[in-house]
């Protein structure tokens, strides 16, 4: 999607949200029942014209009471698709507002792989009732998808696919495809199997359309195939989709038998969720939070890392307290020390963001941490000398002491070196311990650069200025 298309999509969503909010406000203002009903009817018609993903966007942007009002006006045929599109936190509020028979009706609309995505959030009785209505093959597919852990390929794979044998002609394949009312979505290739149902290649549709009808599939198909196993990590598959520009890819078991496929729309969702998770974890948030969640729920999501931050802030205050005598003798220290800590924190966050991204993209191995640390250390020394020198000159000009400017230069450089060290060390250590390298990294790096910056600057000032 181009920049212009993204801008147009954003504008369209904003206009739709504004229109829905206008109708809701109009509904609240109307006293007469007939007039209010007309507004609700107009709201319902507006919602009918929107894609489920757009409705999901609107629901996430509304307070709970308005969200439920809009949810009641959504056509029941769209319930399942919308529940798949909304965030986990908003989905929970919508499901809580629905009766069991409404949930069953919504689940019936979904394909087996989509039902597997939603099953973890539905009441168990609803899942059992829907499973009882599936045929034997669909039930086995659903049970298979539910047997894999969240975040694995098996939990995301799609069972709707087109498969053929290698010993038939392209003309036979074309006649076979014409028997379908429509091909499964995101079908860009046909999977070619041998007599044992083992994957032996893929036949891209573009190759099929230009091939001689008399040619055999075995002559046209591609034998080098990017495939996955159900136990593999979904985020690794998402990186492969991005790297190889895949639209779909086969999922095979340990003997190579085809059991499902992955599609690009699922991988886009995985990449978005991974990106959102990294941003939230950097800030120390446990999970995606409903923007209009109750106060208690928001407090539960945020308190733990705030408690850690409070402890680190107390440590930083104790560092300052230890140099209280020095600050009393030279008041300029109080004005200058936030600069040292602030620049160190920003630099550390730049380093840690780059390292976390590299780890998430699989571009960095733990063994490379030493080399990256040396590189970041070089960057920090240069930045420290340049910007520390600049702020040192300003301090000299303001307070008339060259020695104060030199202390600023040294403190800035040393704190940036500390920021570079911790920026590489924190995510690398968390990765080695099996934790998410982004979890609370921003909080930890800020704590280190604040306490370290205060200690370095005030310590140098005490040694050389007093």
From TrEMBL:
Residues 3-46 form a coiled coil. It comes from the Bacteria. Gene3D superfamilies: CBS-domain, MgtE N-terminal domain-like, SLC41 divalent cation transporters, integral membrane domain. It is a multi-pass membrane protein. Keywords: CBS domain, Cell membrane, Coiled coil, Magnesium, Membrane, Metal-binding, Transmembrane, Transmembrane helix, Transport. Homodimer. Acts as a magnesium transporter. Belongs to the SLC41A transporter family. This is Magnesium transporter MgtE. It comes from Aquitalea aquatica.
């Amino acid at each position: 999607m181009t920049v212009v298309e993204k801008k147009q999509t954003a504008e369209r969503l904003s206009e739709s949200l504004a229109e829905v909010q206008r109708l809701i406000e109009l509904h609240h203002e109307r006293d007469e029942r007939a007039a209010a009903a007309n507004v609700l009817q107009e709201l319902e018609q507006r919602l009918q014209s929107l894609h489920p993903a757009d409705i999901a966007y609107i629901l996430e942007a509304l307070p709970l009471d308005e969200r439920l009002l809009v949810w009641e006006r959504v056509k029941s045929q769209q319930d399942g698709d919308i529940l798949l599109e909304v965030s986990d936190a908003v989905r929970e509020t919508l499901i809580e507002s629905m009766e069991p028979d409404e949930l069953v009706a919504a689940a019936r609309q979904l394909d087996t792989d989509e039902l597997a995505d939603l099953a973890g959030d539905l009441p168990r009785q609803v899942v059992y009732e829907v499973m009882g209505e599936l045929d034997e093959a669909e039930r086995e597919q659903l049970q298979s998808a539910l047997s894999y852990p969240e975040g694995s390929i098996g939990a995301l794979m799609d069972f709707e696919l087109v498969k053929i044998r290698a010993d038939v002609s392209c003309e036979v394949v074309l006649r076979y495809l014409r028997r379908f009312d429509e091909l499964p979505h995101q079908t860009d290739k046909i999977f070619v199997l041998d007599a044992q149902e083992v994957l032996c290649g893929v036949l891209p549709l573009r190759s099929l359309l230009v091939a001689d009808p008399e040619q055999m599939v075995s002559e046209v198909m591609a034998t080098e195939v990017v495939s996955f196993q159900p136990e593999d990590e979904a985020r690794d598959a998402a990186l492969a989709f991005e790297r190889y520009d895949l639209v779909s890819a086969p999922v095979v078991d340990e003997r190579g038998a085809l059991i499902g496929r992955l599609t690009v729309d699922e991988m886009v969702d995985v990449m978005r969720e991974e990106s959102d998770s990294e941003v939230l974890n950097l800030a120390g948030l446990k999970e995606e939070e409903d923007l209009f969640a109750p106060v208690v729920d928001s407090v539960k999501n945020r308190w733990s890392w705030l408690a850690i931050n409070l402890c680190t802030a107390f440590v930083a205050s104790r560092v300052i307290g230890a140099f209280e005598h020095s600050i009393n003798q030279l008041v300029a220290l109080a004005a200058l020390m936030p600069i040292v800590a602030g620049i160190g924190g920003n630099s550390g966050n730049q380093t840690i963001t780059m390292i976390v991204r590299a780890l998430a993209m699989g571009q960095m191995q733990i063994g490379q941490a030493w080399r990256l640390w040396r590189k970041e250390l070089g960057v920090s020394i240069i930045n420290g000398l340049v910007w520390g020198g600049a702020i040192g000159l300003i301090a000299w000009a303001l307070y008339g002491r060259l020695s104060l400017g030199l202390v600023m230069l040294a403190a800035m450089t040393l704190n940036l070196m500390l920021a570079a060290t911790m920026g590489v060390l924190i995510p690398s250590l968390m990765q080695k311990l099996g934790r998410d390298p982004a979890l609370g990294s921003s909080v930890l790096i800020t704590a280190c650069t604040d306490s370290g910056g205060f200690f370095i600057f005030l310590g140098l000032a005490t040694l050389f200025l007093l």
